[in-house]
């Protein structure tokens, strides 16, 4: 295997692990605000790595110029933070409560 194939494999595995970590955070974190943080950070990074692996593979290994992946990455990195911001603003407007472990209320005794 060439070094480009190793790079593609490394990016694909790293991206898959970040997507898995973001999905796990979505299920396991205690409240809406922390559940939103996991997928917007880890999953965006993971999908970025997967799209980068696809770009490297098709542009260098297959020797085909493919700009669709670049447009996907650009769309992903623009829309994910905007969507997260809109969801947080809606949650603040609805006055969603945080869990005691994330609001800092248990540290008030210290």
Architecture blueprint of SSEs:
Blueprint: H1 3-28, H2 32-61, H3 68-93, H4 100-103
Helix pairs in contact: 1-2, 2-3
Summed up, the domain count is 1
Tell me about the biggest sheet? Answer: none
| Global mean pLDDT | 85
Alpha carbon gyration radius: 18 Å
Order of helices and strands: HHHH
- Secondary structure: helix percent: over 70%
N-to-C span: 57 Å
Q: How many helices in DSSP terms?
A: 4
Number of strands: 0
> What is the structural class?
mainly alpha
Q: How would you describe the shape?
A: elongated
Please state roughly what percent of the residues sit in beta strands, choosing from under 5%, 5-15%, 15-25%, 25-35%, 35-45% or over 45%: under 5%
Low-confidence stretches: none
Could you describe the 3D structure shown?
With 110 residues, the protein is mainly α. It has one domain. The chain has four helices and no strands. It has helices spanning 3-28, 32-61, 68-93, 100-103. Helix 1 (3-28) packs antiparallel against helix 2 (32-61) and helix 2 (32-61) packs antiparallel against helix 3 (68-93). The termini are far apart.
Give a short synopsis of this structure.
The chain is mostly helical and 110 residues long. The chain is built from four helices and no strands. The protein has one domain (3-108).
List the keywords.
single chain, 110 residues, mainly alpha
């Amino acid at each position: 295997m060439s070094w480009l194939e190793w790079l593609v494999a490394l990016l694909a595995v790293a991206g898959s692990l970040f997507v898995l970590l973001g999905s796990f955070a979505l299920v396991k974190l205690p409240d809406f605000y922390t559940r939103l943080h996991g997928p917007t950070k880890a999953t965006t990074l993971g999908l970025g790595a997967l799209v980068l692996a696809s770009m490297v593979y098709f542009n260098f290994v297959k020797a085909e110029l493919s700009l669709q992946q670049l447009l996907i990455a650009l769309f992903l990195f623009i829309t994910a933070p905007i969507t997260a911001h809109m969801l947080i603003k809606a949650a603040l407007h609805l006055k969603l409560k945080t869990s005691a472990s994330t609001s800092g209320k248990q540290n008030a005794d210290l």
